[in-house]
Amino acid sequence: MRLVILFLLSVLLPLVLSHGWDHLAGAYYQQNQGYLYGSLYADRAGGECPEECDCPPSFPVAMYCDSRGLTAVPTIPSHVKYLYLQHNAITALPDSALSNATNLVWLMIHYNQLTSESIGKKAFLKLEALERLYLQHNNLTSIPSNLPRSLLDLRIDHNKIEKVSPTDLEGMDNLTVLYLHNNGLSEVGSSLKALKSLILLDISGNKLTKVPDPLPANLHQLYVEYNSIDSVPEAFLSKFTQLQYIRMSHNLLTDKSIPANTFNVSGLVELDLSFNKLERIPLVSTTLQHLYLQANQIKEFTLGSFCSVVDMTNFSKLLTLRLDGNEISPQDIPVDSSLCLRQVLDIEI
Ligand SMILES: *[C@@H]1O[C@H](CO)[C@@H](O)[C@H](O)[C@H]1NC(C)=O
Ligand SMILES: *[C@@H]1O[C@H](CO)[C@@H](O)[C@H](O)[C@H]1NC(C)=O
Ligand SMILES: *[C@@H]1O[C@H](CO)[C@@H](O)[C@H](O)[C@H]1NC(C)=O
Ligand SMILES: *[C@@H]1O[C@H](CO)[C@@H](O)[C@H](O)[C@H]1NC(C)=O
Ligand SMILES: *[C@@H]1O[C@H](CO)[C@@H](O)[C@H](O)[C@H]1NC(C)=O
């Protein structure tokens, strides 16, 4: 249930936000949190709305200042919980900008012009209730210091971050979603390991040359596509208990760089190894459902990669198999493959 809600939030919200239905998102959240209108109005007495923003009377804990060409953060009344500042031209976040905004739960400040130098070292220090921080599409070169440990969802993708220090994310025990994609990271060391609640890590589109290791053991989704990864650690997947989705497409993986049995683990639902340099189909578990291997250099259809035994109960649960853009053709599929791959509707080759 928790996963489903998380998924809905992460899929619907960006959609809703990008379509400007912020009010709807607010209402959705309000309903879920069970806030009472009476207490909201009482809350409101202390604050007023800066003229460049909208503070809807029906949802006074939200303040909408998005997409209006702002270059600085307006004055924020202290009762505001949901602050929308995205799609502006804000260049700085000094220490004082959020010092009164101690009740913030969401801070949306993506698509602005923030640089790491322009964010005060203490800018986030007082935000002890902050759960969601969107900083994507700015000009940051590092993760801001003193981020609230209360964060659940941190999005800082599409910046110019080259390094993650161990202290940047230390103690964020409730962080479940971390977007670091499209930055300039060449390694992350062990800086992510301690994020014990992390479920989704997207670190695609960086400059990684190997799979980050160690990673948090609770991950469900790991996205490392569009890097320059040419090696996978030994027994890499045995460190995870919940991993279901792995995307490693558009890297430099070869047969030799993937230790035998790496992907022969139950629990995996989806494995994307497309656009690499594999010459063989890696051994996968019979429980895998979606396997993407298009645009490699595979020369042989090895049925043993999917099934070692075939009978009533032993067969592959694969539903999707893509092999197009390799060096094999439909004639290379053995006739008896339908016994093993009995759930695949259509092998793309
Ligand atoms: C913070 O609140 C104080 C007292 O209400 C006020 O004087 C000050 O201007 C506020 N600062 C900001 C940055 O909103
Ligand atoms: C942010 O980066 C963009 C694109 O690289 C650039 O055009 C802009 O001038 C930068 N802004 C600042 C404040 O550095
Ligand atoms: C994590 O969430 C729990 C339960 O809501 C809370 O008690 C705890 O303080 C949070 N941890 C941090 C680091 O904010
Ligand atoms: C794949 O994993 C299964 C289950 O752990 C195991 O029984 C089987 O021997 C493995 N296959 C190979 C070829 O090692
Ligand atoms: C095949 O299925 C049977 C149950 O019908 C099971 O006992 C056996 O271990 C399976 N063999 C393999 C290699 O998975």
Automatic annotation (TrEMBL):
It is found in: Secreted, Extracellular space, Extracellular matrix. The keyword Transmembrane does not apply. It comes from the Eukaryota. GO terms for cellular component: extracellular space. It holds the Pfam family LRR_8. Keywords: Extracellular matrix, Glycoprotein, Leucine-rich repeat, Proteoglycan, Repeat, Secreted, Signal. Residues 48-82 form the LRRNT domain. Residues 1-18 form the signal peptide. SMART domains: LRR_BAC, LRR_SD22, LRR_TYP, LRRNT. Affects the rate of fibrils formation. May have a primary role in collagen fibrillogenesis. Belongs to the small leucine-rich proteoglycan (SLRP) family. SLRP class II subfamily. Binds to type I and type II collagen. This is Fibromodulin. It comes from Amphilophus citrinellus (Midas cichlid).
